[in-house]
Amino acid sequence: MKTSKGLATMIGMIMVWAPGAIAQDLIVNSYGGPYEAIIRERIIEPFEQQFGVDVVYDAVGSASQDYAKIKATGGRPGFDVVVMTASQSLDGCRDGLLEPLTPAAVPNVAALNPRVREIAGECGAVHELQYLSLVWRKDKLPQGLTSWSDLLDDKLEGKVILPTFQNVMAAYLIAVMSVTHGGDLLEAVDPGFQAVAELAHRSVGFEQASSVMETYIKDGRAWAMPFWNGRAQLLMESGLPIDYVSPKEGTVPLVATLNVPSGAENKDAALKFVNFWLEKTSQEAWVTGYKVGSARPDIDVPDDVRNRQITTAADLDALLLPDLAALSQRLPQWGSRWEREVVTQAR
Q1: Is 1 inside any structural domain?
Q2: Helix 280-290 / helix 267-277 crossing angle, nearest 10 deg
Q3: Span 287-315, pLDDT tens digits
Q4: pLDDT by residue (tens digit) across 26-49?
Q5: Range of 120's domain?
């Protein structure tokens, strides 16, 4: 969950309510926690220095909540750039609420892997790639984990933390559990719901925010969890005794996007910011700082970073990749099933 920033929210409200207001600052909506410190150092401060634009950082709401705000305000949510995922990018383009980010508007879009660009659609500039990994504490599980089914092992009874359905991680967990237990990513998902329901009964509980989920693994309340691999890498490098893996059954990527609402007050600066983040040097700084993958095939990063991230077409080919537009259409139904079949099984 993004942590509230009252100043940025107030500025955004003023811009929405005052028809004649002129945006003096670029308002960027994204995440709190370790993400905020890294984005300020690696992206925002260099952008401010190069373009002389003041950036107000607004860490309010999850990606789904951000898109709900964009939709409720008709494309005028009070921020100029927002970090979401490919699912919201596709929805926003379809609804006419996000600005198309074409090579003419954002030249560095042309440098991205074409297949990744297609996944996110015309309104999403893919600035990072992660995947849903399996994380565990090495001091509690020295033998390690290799399969999604390992989460159901008796030794993890009461030692797994799960996301709420408001975190897209939950939908991805259903998909990978479905494939693991004989189903598929979108249609035959009953095995996935059954497996996650059983897992919920064995779990310690649910949390929406990734930043809160990781506190369970830090203090030992949880010994294992599904988690984004970039965040897992940061936890490893902080000295925590953990490791992570892409399980043998495969996993689903998180395609993170930069988006500009159609009614953004400071659209010119917003497009410059998106283009800046996609620069080769900016992508290298972001990948090495936040420990994620990139859709730019020409970046130069250390092998120890590249080897655990999505950086090549071959890496993409090895992933389970659902039709995100079709998945987005199923999310309301899946969310209802999650509440009925998964949450009710929790301890």
Answers
A1: no
A2: 70
A3: 999 999 999 999 999 988 888 888 777 78
A4: 999 998 888 899 999 999 999 999
A5: 6-129+254-311
